[in-house]
Amino acid sequence: MAFQLLNGRELSLTVLTEIAAGVRKLIAAGRRAPHLVAVLVGNDLASETYVAGKMRACEQCGFRSTTLRFGNDVTQAELLAAIAALNADDEVDGFIVQLPLPPHIAEQAVIEAIDPRKDVDGFHPMNVGRLSIGLPCFVGATPLGLITLLDRYGIDTTGKHCVVVGRSNIVGKPTAMLLMQKSNPGNCTVTVCHSATPDLARYTRMADILITAVGQPGLITSSMVSEGVVVLDVGITRQPCATARSGYRLVGDVDFDDVAPHCAAITPVPGGVGPMTIASLMRNTYLAATANPLDQS
Length: 297
Ligand code: NAD
What we know:
Blueprint: E1 4-5, H1 8-28, E2 35-41, H2 45-61, E3 64-70, H3 76-88, E4 94-97, H4 107-113, H5 125-132, H6 141-152, E5 161-165, H7 172-180, E6 189-193, H8 200-204, E7 209-212, E8 229-233, E9 237-240, E10 248-251, H9 256-259, E11 263-266, H10 273-290
Parallel strand pairs: 1-11, 2-3, 2-4, 5-6, 5-7, 7-8, 8-11
Antiparallel strand pairs: 9-10
Helix pairs in contact: 1-10, 2-10, 6-7, 6-10
Nicotinamide-adenine-dinucleotide binds at residues 142, 165-168, 170-172, 193-195, 197, 200, 213-216, 234-237, 273-274, 277.
């Protein structure tokens, strides 16, 4: 079967270009550029790479961006004080605290300290709650990236069976909530599978749209999908690779070469969901600066 490659890298550039055009209009109207702050704790290599990618995207959009760095030994009280200052700063439209945090800091306390109106990651319970009942809110960047891929590639979701593998608060759960809503993309029958699901293949074979967010390379093989499925692979795992300059390569949950010939459409890893996540964070920051969804009902 000839499959369509869902090129997140290309689509993300389109989205960033659209946002940049919006920023130019803001500035022409005498407004300041949107400002995103990333709070980075410690020196985890993956977190450094993600934040650098986000800051690069800010530049492409014409945003102001700031990285606020803390050592691994920052106390929870110090971090909460920094968040309170960002909440109060009128020059900051949105901010993110890059996860994971060191074990001595309670992630949930940090997330709940963020002003929901500046929570461009969409992790605050206020945004998650509003999402669950279909109210305007900041939708998490990865779920928003997935929806944007389906939308912009014109993939009809109404009445389709979507199987989401993974139930994390940042990907699996909000993606399932979005896809079950009466909207387009949406209007799906949604099944959520997770680590306690017996016989995963029984469910994945029933999927018209399969979304995997697990972090296990090769989890999904051709025997687990039906012909014509649409596959969105969120998983990102670093695998050592002697031929790569960095010494590693990124792989998804799906055995791409095995599965792709059976698909109507599929995202690659890298170059699929990852860039769309970053573009969606930029979209949320632009919204925070121009039409905050929490001001709407
Ligand atoms: P997580 O790491 O918090 O949890 C993994 C999920 O997989 C859990 O819900 C668990 O129940 C489920 N799971 C584990 N083993 C399973 C199995 N054998 N069968 C079915 N389900 C199983 O989840 P996360 O934070 O959503 O991250 C998942 C993956 O997505 C990771 O590889 C992460 O790096 C990646 N990720 C990518 C992006 C992106 O922008 N592309 C964004 C976020 C996360």
